[in-house]
Amino acid sequence: MTSPSSILVVGAGYVGLATAIFLADHGYPVTVLEKNPYTIETLRHGRLHFREPLLQKKLKQVLKKKKLQLCVPSKDQYRDLRFIFIAIDSADPATSKMRLTSFEKMAQWISETETNNPLTVVLKCTNVIGFADRFWQMLTENKSAKHIRLVVNPEFLREGYAYQDTAHPWRIIIGVNKKGDATPLLKLYRSVYAHSIPIITTDWKSAELVKLASNVYLSHRLAFIHEVADFARIEGLDLNSVKQGIGLDPRIGRDYFQTGLGFGGSCLPKDCHLINSHEIETGFKFKTASTALEINERILDMLIERLRRKLGLLKGKKIAILGAAFKPEVDDTRGSQAVKLALKLKRRGAKVAIFEPYLTKAEKLVEGNFLLEHSLDAALQSASAVIIGTAHRQFRSIKPNHAAKLVKKRFISDYFGVLNKEKWTKQGFEFI
Fold first, then answer.
1. Within 10 Å of residue 403's Cβ, how many Cβ atoms?
2. Which tens digit of pLDDT belongs to each residue from 117-171?
3. Which of 177, 203, 229 is the last residue in one of the domains?
4. Is 312 left (phi over 0), alpha (psi -120 to 50) or beta?
5. What is the distance between the alpha carbons of residues 4 and 410, in angstroms, rounded to a whole number?
6. How far apart are CA 243 and CA 257, in angstroms?
7. Residue 420 in contact with residue 413, Cβ under 8 Å?
8. Quick one: CA torsion of 285, 289, 291, 296, rounded to 10 degrees?
9. 27: which residues sit within 8 A by CB, 6+ positions away?
10. Residue 368, SS3 per DSSP
11. What are the tens digits of pLDDT across the range 250-295?
12. 314, exposed or middle or buried, with CB in 10 Å at 0-12, 13-18, 19+?
């Protein structure tokens, strides 16, 4: 057991909170630093600022046990510190570069922090390949680093399952510059994880590559099945049988074979860019990453072309998009294909109506400045076409006869297979 304030987590997003709450749940007193005072106040009242049901429950439990402190950054001394987990928003998706200013400030703060113990700094955030070397230089510019160990320890969390994946990881990757630097983190993890969980200890760059390459592979896998799905739609083929027939090959499997509007979120698209944004000059390009992004974009363009063929000019026509989150049962719209589709339609003059059940209290989406509809009926009213943007479970219960009374034209797109096609076609809806 470490002493109070010996574990510090910087950043109160999915990764930071999942890490902090998990360690606190195992009895370790943990302090979380977050620069947004409103977020800190919300968390102190036991409320997450995003939707993660189990993490929400665990937050309340560790607060009750008084094992978790939540603070804004200050000049306080953390002399008992042994670990600093860095879980800040690390990369700018617009430039595919690391947010260097944030890390420069972080390095300066760490170097000025006096501790009674050797300090292990853990990079939990996603890095471009070679960034750990760059960050080490930042750390050593201001202070001798002989008492600091830098570890690359990437996360592999699925949004909606952040606590589960933190508590039961499929593998743990630890990247170090010197072999002995892994020892403190290994001891910490062995106290909270089952010995059956594989742990790979490697160098910094290899650990960074494991993270990025994993997400590029998943992106490429999703891009592949979406390309197959588009061909199947054009030819009128039985997509479910095609997916099943491919996925039953044990070398392929059926995981990550779900079709929809493409892949989104804060990880997969970003990492497809980051893997080709090295801190080191290699001259090497991962074509699989760029191909996955290209296919992901084409899915939306082909859907818009189908709409245009049915509706003619899109200018002035209302298009209802049901769901704005990037995946089912979450409220996160970052990297959402549904939002990207809405932006493309808006640029073509369409009137886009978005209903997102998990953001009913929000007035607007930051992306595209879209006003959100307050109800499903409001989105459907007078729509010339309806598009399932996110495969939320509740959309399965929409009654086609009720929807038929509201819409202007009965065109519908459901790439996810959420709706019962037979029931909807009986009500005169045409799937596009």
1. 21
2. 889 999 999 889 999 999 999 998 866 566 899 999 999 999 999 999 999 999 9
3. 203
4. left
5. 62
6. 7
7. no
8. -150
9. 1, 67
10. helix
11. 999 999 899 999 999 988 999 999 999 877 677 789 999 999 999 9
12. buried
> How many C-beta atoms surround the C-beta of residue 298 within 10 A?
15
Q: Which tokens belong to 151?
A: 């570890």
3-state secondary structure of 386: strand
Cβ contacts of 365 within 8 Å, gap of 6 or more: 324, 333, 339, 354, 356, 359, 372
- Of the three residues 187, 203, 219, the one that is the final residue of a domain is 203
Gap between the Cα atoms of 338 and 327, Å rounded: 10
Residue 179, domain CATH: 3.40.50.720
pLDDT for 302: 96
Least confident of 85-89, 226-230, 274-278, 360-364: 360-364
Beta strands 430-431 and 411-413: pairing type?
Answer: parallel
Query: Reduced to 3 states, what is the DSSP secondary structure of residue 123?
Result: strand
Q: Is the pLDDT of residue 1 over 70?
A: no
- Model confidence pLDDT, tens digit, residues 381-401: 999 999 999 999 999 999 999
In this prediction, what percent of the chain has a pLDDT beyond 70? 97
Q: How far is CA 167 from CA 162, 170, 196, in A?
A: 9, 10, 13
Alpha-carbon dihedral 379, 382, 384, 385, rounded to 10 degrees = 30
Evaluate whether residue 39 is within a structural domain: yes
CB 329 within 8 A of CB 357: no
Full-prediction pTM beyond 0.85? yes
Q: Are residues 197 and 331 in the same domain?
A: no
Task: With a cut of 80, say whether residue 364 has pLDDT above it.
Answer: no
Question: What is the rounded CA–CA span in Å between residue 38 and residue 368?
Answer: 24
* Domain identity same for 13 and 130: yes
- Report how far residue 419's alpha carbon sits from residue 391's, in angstroms, rounded to the nearest whole number: 9
Residue 356 belongs to domain spanning: 312-431
Neighbours of 272 (CB within 10 A): 27
Q: Other C-beta atoms within 10 Å of 196: how many?
A: 5
What is the identity of the amino acid at 183?
A: T
Asked if residue 252 is part of any domain, the answer here is no
Alpha helices in 26-125 (DSSP H): 37-44, 53-64, 100-112
Task: Report if residue 121 sits inside a domain.
Answer: yes
Reading the block at residue 4, the tokens are: 């109070």
How far apart (Å, rounded) are the C-alpha atoms in residues 259 and 226?
6
Q: How many domains does the chain have?
A: 2
For residue 249, being part of any structural domain is answered with no
